[in-house]
Structures are given as structure tokens and as C-alpha cells.
Amino acid sequence: MLVNRSKETLDALLLSLFSVRSHWAGPVLVVHWGEENLSLTIACAQLGVTLRSVGELGADAEDWPAGVSQPFKRALVVQPGMLAVAALDGVFAAKCAITEEFAPLLVEGGEVMAARCGCATDFRYGPEAMVVFLGESERWTDAAWQMRSELEAEAAIAMAAIVRVPKDTTIACIITRDGMEDFQSNWLTWRFPAETPVLLVLVGFERDELWLPSMNTDVQIASLNEKQASDTVWLLRTLAQVCRTKRVAFLPASAAALPGADLWVNIAEGDTAQHCSKIALNEVQVTGNRFVPQPLFATLPVERLLKLADAAEVSGANVEDISLLLHSARLDIRMQDMAEYGWAVESAHFYLPPDGVTFANTRATETLRQRADGLLQLADDVVVISLPERTDRRERMEYMMAREGVWFRFVDGVRVKDEEIEPYEISEVGRQSFKMAAGFKKYLRGMAGCRRAHLRVLEAAKAKGLRSLMIIEDDMVLETGWLEKLRAALLELPKGWLQLYFSANNFSPSAPVSENLRRLGGAYQTTAILYSQTGIEAAIQCLRHSRNEIDFWMGRHLHPFGNSYVVHPCIAFQQGGVSDIMSYDRGVTA
User: Fold this and answer.
1) Would the pLDDT of 426 be above 50?
2) Rounded to a whole number, what is the largest CA-CA distance in the chain?
């Protein structure tokens, strides 16, 4: 029995489902919380699996399995991300204690029983294992990567279905060397009708470097150098000339077609669409920040490519990405969420400043500079937020920064009275026990003051036109060797970055970018954050609409778009001591 509690785990669920069905011939039940999902429905039908959708996530999900009935006398409960690696017949043969957090559960008569199933919470598992959980990808061995990759390829081939595409449409994909590995994996899921032509544009490498199994479509391949590909106007015109169909559908190399994937455009409503993520569409409503997915999903007439090229040439627009050009043109493009069309794709987005506001990209390596007085300056302005009466913290910060040779200046924190708190800015604050222990009203005053202090510093930086800003809280401590690690991370920071955290505490998984850098998915802490110029603007928009703690709010409304990063391993931590918000010593926070 497989249990899925979130649409974000759908990819992992499908892989787990395929592995279970490969090693178990008996009945399989998938329990899915939330809206019905077409891809999951088709996959279950293909594999002969029973699917039960049980509505929105609620208390029943937390109390599983007691809250949800199941038809079996005994059942092995498998979570998304767990993989069956051997025949499962022996699972029910014996029972013993399981202490692993992610271990599958044996359910008997609605009650949880322990099961001997050889589960491990990371890549280490013995020859007797039947179900494994690989854990965080950065800990995987080569053997774990190979096992996962082979299983993904098998699942892709077994579950791939014909993708519905309008007639007279060319599928176009622009593939860089960095995206080549993703494309070769996802290509296995791209099954189009035989009459659908496919155009692959290779940037910076040749055809013989690409592994491309044969398929039943007309595949045309063009190789470009990076200079040619960066000329958006030339590229658009070239694509328009090469396409022999009425319209073109752009697909990113990072897109994988789940069962039932669709590229259909409702011709009756027009034939121009750019596909956006639902979280980006929602963010415009909540904070006003606009994010456009970096993976280019768009369907439009070929003649529109020429109009876009002409418009960009006349305006002199230096747009290096077609998805940004499409969004800025706003030529009756309808926005659609590709997740609802059965496509799995990376979540990285471009941030678009408000209309009329243009920023040059802040090069991360330009933020550090040596001052005439010999001190190191980490950004255009380096601010430590501190209440004037906390002389203990100020003295400690002065000593540490002088020892490290770093320039900074203090900015006074903000004290807020009860009557000054706006109802909206605390409307989504949870009442956890640690907040109640601190005195909830005092906690709210401190939280509101923290928000206003950060927002005040950000707005001042914007007014001065700063290209970078470093905000530090007065309980920050730098780790040994921090500067060397920071320099390495700055060299690897991708273009379009908004924030670089010196430390973070994840509540959603982060993703590895390089040896020294991870992309945040959602994290607490505002201990030390470096902002780019666009990051300053995005954070202002975000925090003006904050309804709870600013670290949690930014973790929910900035981090999911893939432009916020953290140095890995972290180069700072919060020193222990009595907190002005908590009123007690909360200890060291890494």
C-alpha cells in the first residue's frame, strides 16, 4: 500500500509504485490525498493498481493508518521515495522492531505492527534488504545513483504514453551542455504522434555527444555555438525559418512527461500560450512579485516568432532568454500551469521587477571589495540590526568583525507597541508552545519589530540604488574559514540570484548546486543574508505583505522560486543568549 500526502511527491510516488509492482505480484493500493491526478490515475491503470483518492489533506493523514480504512488484513505501507529492490513476499513472514524514521509500516487490522523489511534511511543497505530509502541525494554513492538512474529509465520506458499534440505543430527544445544529462533521461518519456516533427537545438556541443535512442518521430538537429544562441533575435528568426509547421511548442530539456501528459492548445480560445507554475500565478496575487519559469514551456504560431524578433530588434531589448521575451511581450499569451498538463519540471524561475523598473544583474563576485582602510566590505552596504540597549551584543559584534577585518555599521532595531501592530502582519502567526512560553503578546511585538527593521533597511538600500546589501542580525557568529567558503560560493552563484544565506534551517529540502552552494526550497533564519539589487526589490515586495515571521514568510514566498541560495556548509550560526523576542536563552542555533 503506497501513501501519498502531497502533489510535490508525485514523481517519487510513481517511481516507488513502479519498483513495488516490479517485485510484488499481489494487490497494490495507492491512497492519495488531494485532488484527483490524471497522471497517477493512468499510471495505476497501466500497472494494475487500485487508486483511492481521499480528498484534501486533513487530520486523517496525520493519524494514518488509524484514520483511513484499508481493505487488507495485513498491508505494507510504503512512502514516496522508498524503493523495492527485491521480492516482497518475505515481508509478512516475520516481525521485529523498526526504529528508522522512514521505515515502511506493517498494518494489521488497522493497527501498526513492525515489519522486517530491511529498510535504511540512507544509501547503506545490506543484501537482505527488500525496501530501501535512499535519503538525501548528496549522500548517495555511485551505486545508489546507478540504481536510481536505471530504475528511472525502466519506469520511463514502461509508463511512457503518447503525448497529445495539436496537428501541424513542431516540438522545439533548446539544449545546453549543462542540460544535456537531464534531456537524455527525459527524452525517454517524450512519445509524440509519428507525424509530429521534433527540432533539437544543441548549444555548445555536437550531435555525436548526445545519446539519443531512436523514436517514431521526424527529428531534426541543429548545433549552435554559445554566441549564436545568445542572440535571441537571430535565434527566433532561425527557428521560424526551420519550422515547417503552422505553430511551434517549446519544451525544456528538464521536462519529463508523466503518464497522460498533454501539449494540447484550445484553438477555439486562441493558439498562444505560455505555461507558468501555479505558485507563480498565486504569488502575483499575494505579494505582487512576478516569477517566470526558467524552463521554457510555450506554444505559439510560427509567425509570432518573427513578430517577437522584430519587436525585440526595434526596441533594442537585450533579452537573453526566450521565455522572458515572451512574457514581456504579453501578446495575448494565456498562462497555464504545466503541472496540470502532466509534466514534471524543475522549479527555477526568473524574477521580474515591477513595470518600469530595470536592474542590471548583480555579479556576485563584485559584491566583495577591499576598502582604502584595509577592511573587507561584503556588499555596497553592510548593516547589523541591533537594539541600542543591547550593548552586550554590540560589543561582541564589534570585536568579532574587527578580528575578521570586516567593515559594517549598526542600524537600530525597532520597538513596536501592541497598538502599533497591524492585524494583517500577524494574521497567520501560529500559536506554538515556545511562543506562548515567551509571552505571546511580547513575541508578536518582537516579531513585528524584526519585520519592520529589515524592511526599513531594504527600503533605504533601494532608495540609494544599491546593487548589493548585506543584512546581519546581532547574534550572528562567523564560522572558522568562512571567507574562503564564501568566495568559492560567490564564484558558483548562478545568474539571476536574489539572496545568498550564510546559514539556514530548512523546512523544505534544499537542492545541491555545487560543492559550495545549495538552492533553498524553504528555510528559516535571517541571521545573515546577502541581497542582489533585484533581491532587494523582491524582498521589499515580499515583506510588505508578510503575515507571519519574516524568515518563514520569505521561505514560503521567495525560496520556492529557485533564486535563493545558502553557502554549503553554512558559514555562520546564531549565538546563544537571551533573545529579545523569546525572553529566554534559546541556545546556539546552527
Assistant:
1) yes
2) 76
Are 357 and 446 in contact, with CB atoms under 8 Å apart?
no
DSSP string, 249-285: EE--TT-EEPTT-B----GGG-S-EEEE-HHHHHHHH
According to DSSP, residue 2 is labeled E
Start-to-end Cα distance in the chain: 38
Predicted TM-score (pTM) of the model is 0.79
Q: For residues 289 and 310, what is the distance between their CA atoms, to the nearest angstrom?
A: 28
CA distance 409 to 576: 22
Name residue, grid cell 496537428: 167
Q: Tell me if 250 sits within 8 A of 173, measured CB to CB.
A: yes
Grid cell of 241 as nine digits: 525559418
**Rounded Cα–Cα distance for residues 462 and 104 (Å):** 51
Contact between 44 and 51 (Cβ < 8 Å): yes
Residue 490 CA, chain-centre distance (Å), reads 20
b/e burial code for range 169-182 (CB count within 10 A of at least 16 → b): bbbbbbbeeebbeb
Contact between 277 and 233 (Cβ < 8 Å): no
Give the number of residues written for the chain: 590
> What are 191's strand-pairing partners?
162
Other beta carbons within 10 Å of 429:
17
Three-state DSSP at 291 gives strand
- Residue in the block written with cell 563576485: 365
Q: Could you tell me if 293 and 345 are in contact, meaning their C-beta atoms sit under 8 angstroms apart?
A: yes
Alpha carbon distances (Å) from 282 to 63, 86, 113, 277, 345: 30, 43, 42, 9, 18
| 321, 326, 329, 333 alpha-carbon torsion, rounded to 10° | -170
56, three cell numbers: 484534501
How far is 96 from 132, CA to CA, in rounded Å? 17
Q: What is the SS3 assignment for 248?
A: strand
Rg (CA), the chain: 26
Which whole-number Å values give the CA distances from 447 to 224, 450, 559, in the listed order? 53, 5, 20
How far apart are alpha carbons 329 and 322 in whole angstroms? Answer: 10
Question: Containing H/E element for 82?
Answer: strand 82-84
Helices 550-557 and 533-544: crossing angle, nearest 10°? 110
Tell me phi and psi for residue 310, to 5 degrees: -65, -45
pLDDT at residue 563 is higher than 70? yes
Q: Mean of the per-residue pLDDT values for the chain?
A: 82
**What is the band of 312 on the pLDDT scale with cuts at 50, 70, 90?**
confident
Show the cell assigned to 391.
550593548
pLDDT band at 61 (very low <50, low <70, confident <90, very high): very low
pLDDT tens digits, residue range 339-352? 888 898 887 898 98
Rounded Cα distance, 408 and 386, in Å: 12
* Three-class SS state of 500: strand
* Contact residues for 472 (Cβ-Cβ < 8 A; gap 6+): 382, 383, 384, 385, 397, 408, 527, 528
